[in-house]
Design a protein that fits this description.
Keywords: Purine biosynthesis, Transferase
Order of helices and strands: EHEHEHEHEHEEHEE
EC number: 2.1.2.2
Oligomer: single chain
Pfam family, one: Formyl_trans_N
CATH class: Alpha Beta
Enzyme class: transferase
Number of domains: 1
Shape: globular
Strand content: 15-25%
Helix content: 25-40%
GO molecular function, one term: phosphoribosylglycinamide formyltransferase activity
Length: 219
C-alpha cells in the first residue's frame, strides 16, 4: 500500500482516557516528527480528561456517545463517519478507545486505523483487556518481558496486523502501576513511529505481518 503522505489525524478516546498517547501525537506533529496534524479528537464522554487536554491544545473536540446509539451500530458509525469526512481525515488513531470500532469505519478506513495496546500482542489482548488488567495479567503469568503494540484495526479486539512493537523487562518487584509507568514512554515512541511509517513508507500486509518494502520491487 502507498504511504499516506501528510497525515490528517482523528484521535478516538473513551471516557477514562487521560490522553498521554494523544499528547504524544500532538507533540510529534508540532515538532514535525510526524508530517501532518491532529485535526479532531472524538470522545465517548464529555468529561474525559483527554478531551480537556485536546481543548487546551486548541484541537477541535466532539463527543459522540455510544449510549445514544445503543443497539444502532450503523447509526453510530455514520455519526462518526460524518465527522471524519467533515475534517477530511485520512488516519484514525485509537488512544484509550475501549469499544470495538464499528465495522463501517473499519471498511471505510481500511489500513488507516491504528490502535495501541499495552502488551506484546497476540499475548494479553482481547475484549476487556486494557489498562491495569493487562499489567496484572503479565505479572501473574511470570513473563520476563512485556511491551506495547501498535496494530492496524480490524473487526475484532487486538487482532489486526502488527506495525510496531517495543519491549521492556518485567522486574520481580514490579506492580501493575510501576510496570505501566515504565511502559508509557515506550507507548509514546511506538505510536509516533507507527504513524510515521504509515505516512511515509510503502507497506505490504501478509496475514498479521506488515512488511516495509521498496515500491520498485515486488512485495
Amino acid at each position: 500500500m502507498e504511504p499516506l503522505g501528510e497525515a490528517q489525524i482523528a484521535v478516538f478516546v473513551s471516557g477514562e482516557a487521560r490522553g498521554s498517547n494523544m499528547q504524544a501525537l500532538l507533540d510529534a506533529c508540532m515538532e514535525q516528527r510526524i508530517k501532518g496534524e491532529v485535526r479532531v479528537v472524538i470522545g465517548t464522554r464529555a468529561e474525559a480528561p483527554a478531551l480537556t487536554r485536546a481543548r487546551e491544545a486548541g484541537v477541535a473536540v466532539h463527543v459522540v456517545s455510544p449510549k445514544k446509539y445503543e443497539g444502532q451500530e450503523e447509526a453510530y458509525a455514520h455519526a462518526l463517519l460524518r465527522l471524519l469526512r467533515r475534517y477530511e481525515i485520512n488516519l484514525v488513531c485509537l488512544a484509550g478507545y475501549l469499544l470495538r470500532l464499528p465495522a463501517p469505519i473499519v471498511a471505510a478506513y481500511s489500513y488507516r486505523v491504528l490502535n495501541i495496546h499495552p502488551a506484546l500482542l497476540p499475548l494479553f489482548g482481547g475484549k476487556g483487556m486494557y489498562g491495569r488488567r493487562v499489567h496484572e495479567a503479565v505479572i501473574e503469568s511470570g513473563m520476563k518481558v512485556t511491551g506495547c503494540t501498535v496494530h492496524f484495526v480490524d473487526n475484532d479486539y487486538d487482532t489486526g496486523p502488527i506495525l510496531v512493537q517495543r519491549a521492556i523487562p518485567v522486574f520481580d518487584e514490579d506492580t501493575p502501576e510501576t510496570l505501566a509507568a515504565r511502559l508509557l514512554p515506550e507507548e509514546h515512541r511506538a505510536y509516533v513511529e507507527a504513524v510515521d511509517i504509515r505516512t511515509s513508507r510503502w507497506l505490504c500486509v501478509k496475514g498479521r505481518r506488515v512488511l516495509v518494502y521498496d515500491p520498485f520491487k515486488s512485495c
